[in-house]
Amino acid sequence: MNALERRAVAALASVYAMRMLGLFMVLPVFVLLGDDLEGATPALIGLAIGIYGLGQALLQIPFGMLSDRFGRKRMIYIGLVLFAMGSLLAASAESIYVVIAGRILQGAGAIASVLMALLSDLTREEERTKAMATVGVSIGLSFSLSLVAGPILGAVFGLAGIFYVTAGLALVAMVIVAWLVPTPHQQTLSADSQPARKMLVKVLADRRLLRLDFGIFALHLVLTAVFLIFPTLLQDQFGLPSASHWWFYLTVMVTSFFAMIPFIIIGEKKRRMKPVLCGAIVMLTLSTAAIGYIPPALTMAWAVLFFFFMAFNLLEASLPSLVSKESPAAAKGTAMGVYSTSQFSGAFLGGALGGIMLQQAGLQGVIWLMVGVLLLWLLVALSMPAPGYTTSFVVQLRHEARARFGEIDQSLRQLPGVQDVVIVEEADTAYLKVDRRQFDAMQLADFSFVRPVNET
Question: In this structure, is residue 277 part of a structural domain?
Fold first, then answer.
């Protein structure tokens, strides 16, 4: 990357991370601190935890499309203002209903797709995969940090303090967007990072992608629901004060992250992704079921959560990669938009249904809700064909080659390893699905219609 791209990627990744940090910090503490709110019940606490996902699910793709018309930065500012307003509303609340309203407003600032679109405007095609990977790492780090920061801030400042810090993070993010994120000279059409209406039907009809969408839905349903019960268990059953939960989560997250790396390598390098995926779902199911039967020893609670997050981290890292591999050529942005909508829908229902089950059936009710969803996911995963090992490859075309798009399509399809080709004419770009073991990019140099990387 050049200096401008590095600056843009670092700034946008930090904005994304701050926003996700603000959303997630309440997860490990809300069920403990929310009991003091007027009108609080287990069902309403669960709704308050998960309701942000509803706004995210409904508005993420529309926000991205509105940014095409009204500008990227303008929509990011609007989203961050909504996020800050929701945080301030929740911070000032004495009633659970006001907190729910604040969380809805937080979720309405659904700027993830806009950030990705701006990222595509500010990076070259050949650098975009690295840029998106950087954002992905920032999201993972923000989630891990939230499990540590949430209990610490909750112990010192209470629930309101967490929301005030979240509002402050939104304001810092606005300053970063204003001062550090370059303003693009023009908006770029990128099928790799932006949803497209014409691709939506194709993506929704793809059974492989729908299985993966259900997977992320189930994963985040379980993640949200588990925080309705585990913090209370740590405090009441294992005698760990809420102010000390941070070190418990920190040690679990660090060790489970390193433990899952060998399985990622086996899945990708040995092309054994389906067994790895199904094995992780089994591990997640067993560790979830074990939550209700942990002996009264903190070390046993740590072990159960270690296996839970080892499986969770493995699945969270694998699923986006599989979506990228399985999405049709020129439809990655749309496929990821549907995937993210499924993710936030799962978070919403995990909180809402988990809270209802907690109120109606207690801890065991929440556990069996999670186990039931995971068993259904396991059946879906077992019925899935072994995933392909293709990847996207972007070819920039010379402007003068527009009259030969039919010929270009046929020429590209004849290359070894090329499985699909889609040409986006208005962007002078060809999107290829290729098997890296068979495809040699050097062959493209023989074609006169291909624009060299250093040519503008």
Answer: yes
For 254-298, what is each residue's pLDDT tens digit?
A: 999 999 989 988 887 777 889 999 999 999 999 999 999 999 899
- What is the Cα–Cα distance from 5 to 126, expressed in whole angstroms? 12
Domain check: are 293 and 374 in the same one? yes
**The domain that contains 442 carries what CATH number?**
3.30.70
Torsion of CA 320, 325, 329, 331, to 10 degrees: -20
312 and 439 both lie in a single domain: no
CB 220 within 8 A of CB 350: yes
d(CA 25, CA 52): 13
Among 74, 173, 174, CA closest to 114: 74
Rounded to whole angstroms, the Cα distance separating 199 from 328 reads 9
Residue of 3, 2, 13 lying closest to 118 (CA atoms): 13
> To the nearest 5 percent, what fractions of the chain are helix, strand and coil?
75, 5, 20
Residue 257 main-chain phi, psi, to 5 deg: -65, -50
Q: Tell me the β-bridge partners of 422.
A: 431
Same domain membership, residue 191 and residue 149: yes
Of the candidates 336, 359, 382, which is a domain's last residue? Answer: 382
Does the predicted TM-score (pTM) go above 0.85? yes
In a domain, 136, yes or no: yes
On whether both 171 and 305 belong to a single domain, the answer is yes
Q: What is the pLDDT of residues 387-431, one digit of tens each?
A: 766 777 888 888 766 767 788 888 888 888 888 887 777 667 888
DSSP 405-446: HHHHHHHHHTSTTEEEEEEEGGGTEEEEEEETTT--GGGGGG
Same domain, 357 and 280: yes
- Over range 16-41, report the average pLDDT: 93
Q: Do 46 and 127 belong together in one domain?
A: yes
**Nearest partner of 231 among 142, 154, 315, judged by Cα:** 154
Task: Please give the tally of structural domains in the chain.
Answer: 2
Q: What is the pLDDT of residues 204-262, one digit of tens each?
A: 888 989 999 999 999 999 999 999 999 999 999 999 999 999 999 999 999 999 999 89
For residues 113 and 161, state if they share a domain. Answer: yes
Q: Are residues 154 and 179 in the same domain?
A: yes
Residue 230, domain extent: 3-382
Burial class of residue 448 in the structure, from the number of CB atoms within 10 Å of its CB (0-12 exposed, 13-18 middle, 19+ buried): exposed
3-state secondary structure of 395: strand
Q: What is the mean pLDDT of residues 337-364?
A: 94
**Window from 36-45, 129-138, 174-183, 206-215 with minimum mean pLDDT:** 129-138
Give 371's contacts (C-beta < 8 A, 6+ positions apart).
285, 288, 289
CATH number of the domain where residue 144 is located: 1.20.1250.20
